[in-house]
Amino acid sequence: MSFTLIGTKIGMTQIYDGENRLVPVTVVQAGPCPVVQVKNGESDGYNAVQIGFKEQKEHRVNKPQIGHFKKAGVAPHHQLREFRVNEGEGEFNVGDVLDVSKFEEGQKVDVIGTTKGRGFQGVMKRWNFGGGPASHGSMTHRRGGSYGMCQWPGEVMKGKKMPGHMGNKNRTTQNLVVAKVIAEKNLILIKGSVHGSKGGTVYIRTAKKTRKAK
Amino acid sequence: MQSIIEEVTQDQLKPDREKFKVGDGVRVHTRVREGDKERIQVFAGIVIARKGSGIHETFTVRRISYGEGVERVFPVHSPNIEKVEVDRESVTMRARMYYLRDRIGKKATKVKEKRLLETAGA
Asked: 20 to 30 Å CA-CA from A95: which of A76, A116, A187, B122?
C-alpha cells in the first residue's frame, strides 16, 4: 500500500544500528496526518487521498477551509496535501489518522521537498563545470566556455547550461532507507541526508521504484 | 529542534564513559570481529583530546609503540568499546595535549600524575 506523510525536517545526527555501526540519519517529525477527503473516480475524476498536517487554530483558517474540515469532522490543519492512489488500493476513510508507525525499519521511502535556495550562481557551482585555468595569463576563470557553434545554427541551443537561479526547487530523493521509527514522538529517522533546510516541509512517500526482492 | 535530536540519541549514550578525562592513562577494550569470532583488543595510552558532544563525541588515545607514536580516535559512546579502564589520573594545564606529539623519548609519555601531586601536598 502506498501512502504519503507530511513532516518537518528537524536535522541530522548519528545512531548505532543493530550491528554496532554508526549510521548518519536525518530526523523528520512526520504526522499524525488525518485523512480529510477521499477522492474517487466517480465524483472527482481521479483517485486520491487528502491529508492534513499540523493542527491550526480555527481563526487562522479561512471560512471555506473551516467548512471543508468540518465536513470531514477533523480539526483545522495548517497544511493539506493530496496523494494519488490506485483504484481499490488500500482502505482510506475520512477521519483515519496516518502516522509514522505505518513505516517500518529498513523500508525504502521517497522524500519530496524543496531544496535550499542558493540564489544566482555561476556555472561551476550550478552545473559542475570545470571553469578555466587559474593562472598562466588565463582570463577565463569561472566562465562556462563556448555557448554554441558558428553562423550555423546561429543561436544558442535550447536548454544550454548557463548561470542562473539555483536551488529552491521541488525535488524527490528516491529509495532512502528508514533507519528507525519512534512512533510515540512521531519521529522517523531516515538514513543519510534529506534535501532542504531544517524546519522545511518534506513529504515522505513509500518508495515508488524499489527493486523487488528476489 | 536541537532538543529533539538530543532526545533521539539519548538512549544510546553511555554515562559511565564520562569518567575519564584528558591526560589520563587509559586501557581501551575494543571488540574486534574476525569472521564470526569476537575478541577483545586492548589499546593502552594517554587520552590527548576529547572532541564533540553527545553521540558525536570522540576521544584520541596516543601511545608509543615500538618507538613510533600511534594515535587512535574512538567514539566515546561506541558499543564496540567494551570498557575504558583508567590506569592513572593526571592533572593537565591543557584541554588538548597535542604538545606530546612533538616530544621524543621519556618525555613523550610524561604527564603530571594526580597521585603524586596529592602525596606531595600532604
From this structure: A187
Let me know if residue A212 belongs to a domain.
no
Determine, yes or no, domain membership for A32.
Answer: yes
**Residue A19 domain flag:** yes
Contact list in B for residue A198 (CB cut-off 8 A) is: 1
What digits encode the pLDDT tens for the residues A43-82? 888 888 999 998 889 889 999 999 999 988 888 999 899 9
Residue A181: closest CA among chain B residues belongs to which residue? B8
Which candidate from B5, B56, B75 shows the least CB-CB separation from A10? B5
How many CA atoms lie less than 13 Å away from A112 in the CB half-sphere?
13
* B119 vs A: CB within 8 A: no
A53 assigned to some structural domain: yes
CB contact under 8 A, A16 and B2: no
pTM, entire model? 0.83
Task: Give the DSSP per-residue string, A8-66.
Answer: EEEEEEEEE-TTS-EEEEEEEEE--EEEEEEE-HHHHSS-EEEEEEEE--GGGS-HHHH
Number of domains present in the structure of chain A? 1
Answer yes or no: is the ipTM higher than 0.85. Answer: no
CATH number of the domain at A47, please: 3.30.160.810
Min Cα–Cα distance to chain B from A115, Å: 19
Domain that holds residue A43: 4-116+175-206
